[in-house]
Amino acid sequence: MHASLPIKQLFSVRTLAALLLGCVCTSALADGMVERIRQRGQLIVGIGYVAPQYAAGAKFRTPETMDAALAADIGKRLQAAPSALRTDSANRLPSLAAGKADVVLAAIPEIDPLRRLALVVPTGYSAGPMAIMRSDTAIKTREQLKGRTVCLSEGGLYVGTIAARYGAIEKIFKAPADSLLALRTGGCDAAVHDDTMLEELLKLPEWKKFSARLPVGPRTSLVLAVPAGERDAAMFLQQVARDWHATGYLDDQMKKNVRNIAFEVYLDQNVPDCH
Q1: Candidate CATH numbers 3.50.50.60, 3.40.190.10, 3.10.560.10, 3.30.160.390; the one for domain 33-125+225-264
Q2: What pLDDT score was predicted for residue 225?
Q3: Assigned CATH for 129-217
Q4: Burial level of 198, CB count in 10 A (0-12/13-18/19+)?
Q5: Which pTM value belongs to this model?
Q6: Distance between CA atoms of residues 207 and 191, nearest Å
């Protein structure tokens, strides 16, 4: 049998072990991503499209996605300046693994490898590509987009996909306002953007004439992703996502974007709608 330690000595050993464990946990927390970002004062967010820096005198254009606004909100919570890094399906995971991006914000399908190889936090926001056209359009099916001119914006997710799937002729613009303006003035047969955004746009009376719609692709979900080992960061982002849901932040931001885009189209449309 092993000799028993006196009660006082046993208490001291357990106390010391608890203190040591506490130090280890505190050290791990201090070394976690959230604390590192705060100390650095910079948050690097991987997003699909980095909008060009606004130049004085240029027309302001609202981007297709809310990525920049969401990155800014996360940065504000961390008291860290957000910095955007362009990432896509090919380099999202390498960017996280190499520490080039702290967080990746991406719209991904259910089968995306990011879900298996990183810690992924759903935001609750989803969208899919939808085509809108004049209400009297002859285009009634996706297959009828073949050979037709379809306008898109380079900040969206769908550049290249409509041509590849349906044989459409894609015309790419800098921003959704330019794409939608081209639709109104006869520069294209259809415009393809996120359905969540377009459904909100079509509630406006001035878009009634362009309310024909056609789903043209699968939906994706907007998620936040961090490296697999960064559980403190994932927990922080889960709380951010809960806050966004509780306050309706994502929906409000989407509606704000739509109002801005509609106003940008209104300001620039100096010729009548096509007939």
Answers
A1: 3.40.190.10
A2: 97
A3: 3.40.190.10
A4: buried
A5: 0.83
A6: 13
